[in-house]
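Sequence, structure tokens reproduced for reference:
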Amino acid sequence: MIAPLLLSLLPMLATAPTIEKDNDAPRPNLVVIFTDDLGYGDLSCYGHPTIATPNLDRMAAEGQRWTQFYVGASVCTPSRAALMTGRLPIRSGMCNTRRRVLFPDSAGGLPASEITLAEALKDLGYATAMVGKWHLGHLAEFLPTNHGFDSYYGIPYSNDMDRVASAPEGRVAITEPEIEYFNVPLLQDTRIIERPTDQRTLTRRYTEQSLRFIRDHAQGDQPFFLYLAHSMPHVPLFRSEAFVDASRRGLYGDVIEEIDWSVGQILDTIRELGIAEETLVVFTSDNGPWLTYDQQGGSAGLLRNGKGSTWEGGMREPFLAWWPGTIPTGQVVPDLGSTMDLLPTAVRLAGGEPPSDRVLDGVDLRPALFGAGPSPRDSMFYYRGTELYAVRLGPYKAHFITQEPYGRDTNRIEHDPPLLFHLEHDPSERFDVSADHPEVLATIQALADAHRASVEPVPNQLEARITAD
């Protein structure tokens, strides 16, 4: 029955079960590896037949592979805000129905009032570094070094932005790209060190920067947090010379296989330095595949739709967790989890308490990570921009509104009664069972109403644009 799952209509963190931490236990290092536009079906350990990901497969075999893990939004900026804050982006103003992400002419960014994962861990004594795509504000006040990171190396927004006027019109510039078509800056902290960025070498350079940080902080008493956010497989697709034509899947597969190589470098270095048993590494992505780019986009596997949509393919992602000696090996976890859960989980692992002065949408995943019990998460809210389109509770998902994915923004349909799918019986969302379960719809409607009542209006950060002097 669905009713026992609805323990409270208030945010879950207040009632989520926790595991007591041994105060004498060492605080783990944390590495979060985040890709861009990776689909649920793009890794061989998630069923892809022609993309080889041996390092991620080994990570899954030595740790956990989650099958029902979600992001906070189906496009870049709001999803990354959810990861960093443990909060749905509607609470921070980091989502918008019309301007769905931040652009080079955006004047807004992640507000200083938000507490990021980096700030929370830095306050607990961690060394912090961010490498890769940020996309939470490119002006100096919004950059990673003003949100808790000691250092930053990467691009401030998506790799298809800053397209130059001389680039070919239409999709050709993206599907047949040259470095010079996109005047994207590469930053070291707040300083531009390269423009345009040579995107062919970005994955390799991100990896080198990450390995340098890990080696520099492996032997001291200070734990570290590394956030490695790859710019790809977001289009335009680039890979280094060593990975040209390396994959049976073509260019897209080459890009994924280079990311897999990068993960192998990270894990091998952690093993070689002798810190594997004190380091938690997780791997996931920001949203589903950009399907409108055909063979240069990925696959959501058996899930419906992709990037930009609130169908499962837009917001359910691969998630791997690796921590030798602590996380059970070879475990497949069917429980619900979310990127928003990383903040409260990591803070508690570090011996701290998550912020109590604001609504958090994340829960403490330690019971499930340690194999000690189920995940405390039993629901998910699916936003498109600032509108709540769908809600999941237990195995059931109700769609109040449906719409085509990013790039095909048509056919917005409001459903009364809502569509209802049993996601464990029907992960592809093909069979509407709303007529059979009116009581489930009523329970989910009550949850949605309570959630909306918990959202307080805040300034929208994606609407403001830089004005010319």
